[in-house]
Amino acid sequence: MRMHPGTDGEGPSPPDYHALTAEALAERTLDGLLAEHPGELVRTGSPHLVCTVLPPHWRSNKTLPVAFKVVALGEVLDGTLVTVRAGNDENFCGELRNCTAVMKNQVAKFNDLRFVGRSGRGERERAERTEKCRGKSFTLTIIINSSPPQVATYAKAIKVTVDGPREPRSKTRHQQFHPFHFGPRPFHFGNPLDPQRVADPMMGSLLFKLPGKHCHLV
C-alpha cells in the first residue's frame, strides 16, 4: 500500500496552503468587488459590509443622485432589516427619511434615502480670529439586524447643508458685478445730453463747468 508522506499519523501533516480564515476570504472578496465597481462602492468599518459612495456635500432633504445600497459579503438571510443612522459631535442623531431597507440577495437597497438634518457648520476659533471651516460631515452607522447583529460605520460620509454645494462666491461675484471705472474721463464731443460735454472748438466757443455756473469762452 502506497502511503503519502505525513498521512500515516506518525509524522507532521503538510501545511494546508488553501486554508483561509473568514477575514482573509472576506478581504479577498472585498477587493474583487471594489475592483468590479470602481467609484461606486466604499469600504466600511466592517470587512463584511460595503455601501454606496455618497456625495461629499449635499442639500438637505434632496434625493440622492444614486440609490443608497448596503452589500453584505457574508451570509445574511433575505428579509433581514437594515437601518442607517447619521450623526456627529454637533448633531448626534441627524434626521433621516426612508432610512430602513430589507436585505435581498445580500443587497439592501434604500428607497429614496434622504438626509434632512444638517451636519453642522463646523466653526473653530484661532488665536487671531474666528474662522469658518469647510463644515462637518456625518458619520453613517449601518446596522444589520441579524443574529448576532452586525454594525459598520462609514466615516465622514456626507456633509448636509441647507443650500447644498454651490459655486464659489468669488466666481459668482465676478459674473454679476460690473465695476465702474473711476478717474479722469475723456472729453465728449457732439453729445448734447452729456452734462460734461465740451463744445466743438470749431464752433467758436468752449463750454465748461464751474461750481454753480456755466461759462462760455468766445
Task: Throw out a few tags for this protein.
9-stranded mixed β-sheet, two-stranded antiparallel ribbon, Immunoglobulin-like, p53-like_TF_DNA-bd_sf, mainly beta, 218 residues, single chain
Care to describe what's here?
It is found in: Nucleus. GO terms for molecular function: ATP binding; DNA-binding transcription factor activity, RNA polymerase II-specific; RNA polymerase II cis-regulatory region sequence-specific DNA binding. With 218 residues, this protein is mainly β. The chain has a domain of 132 residues: Immunoglobulin-like (Sandwich). Helices cover 11% and strands 31% of the residues. It has 2 helices and 15 strands. A 9-stranded mixed sheet has the order 1-2-4-8-7-5-12-13-3, covered by helices on one side. A hairpin with a 2-residue loop joins strand 14 and strand 15. The chain is globular, with a radius of gyration of 35 Å. About 9% of the residues have low confidence.
